[in-house]
Amino acid sequence: MRKVIYTEKAPQAAGPYSQAIGTESFVFTAGQVGMDPVSGQLVDGGIQAQTRQVMKNLSAVLEEAGTKFSRVVKATVFLADINNFSAMNEVYATYFPTDPPARSAFQVAALPLNAMVEIEMVALKG
């Protein structure tokens, strides 16, 4: 079974992709940037504000799929500037107070909308 996940509480897909895809066992999210789903604009306030919005967007997608942060097994973080890693990590860590998922983080050449951070996740269902 393959199910498209969609919620209005996270930004709409800006291309030919889904916010997430659910299977019997897993949820695979698309990458989320710090875009406010109502305004369609990146939030102001720098890397920490964008990271908080990314996590808010991912929480909404995971909730729509019937799962949550405690069920995330893998996260991938894309940063426009690796020098923002510590500041991003401060915010990210608050969402995983115990037993955080496996994670990779990379600096990339550019992100959509000139975002500072993008994060995607894989979570267990249920």
In short:
This protein is of the alpha+beta class. The protein has two helices and seven strands; from the N terminus they run ββββαβαββ. α1 runs parallel beside α2.
Secondary-structure blueprint:
Layout: E1 3-5, E2 20-22, E3 26-29, E4 32-33, H1 46-64, E5 72-79, H2 85-94, E6 102-107, E7 117-124
Parallel strand pairs: 5-6
Antiparallel strand pairs: 1-2, 2-3, 3-7, 4-7, 5-7
Characteristic key phrases:
23% helix; 60s Ribosomal Protein L30, Chain: A; seven-stranded mixed β-sheet; globular
Describe this structure in words.
The protein is of the alpha+beta class. It has one domain (3-124): 2-Layer Sandwich (60s Ribosomal Protein L30, Chain: A), CATH 3.30.1330.40. 23% of the residues lie in helices and 27% in strands. The protein has helices at 46-64, 85-94, and strands spanning 3-5, 20-22, 26-29, 32-33, 72-79, 102-107, 117-124. Strands 1, 2, 3, 4, 5, 6 and 7 form a seven-stranded mixed beta sheet that branches. The two termini are 15 Å apart. The mean pLDDT is 97.
CATH class term: Alpha Beta
Number of H- or I-type helical stretches:
2
Rounded mean pLDDT score = 97
**What percent strand?**
25-35%
Label the structural class.
alpha+beta
Large-scale geometry: globular
Rounded to the nearest angstrom, the distance between the terminal CA atoms is 15 Å
Number of DSSP E strands: 7
| CATH fold descriptor | 60s Ribosomal Protein L30, Chain: A
Uncertain parts: none
Quaternary structure annotation = single chain
**Helix content bin:** 10-25%
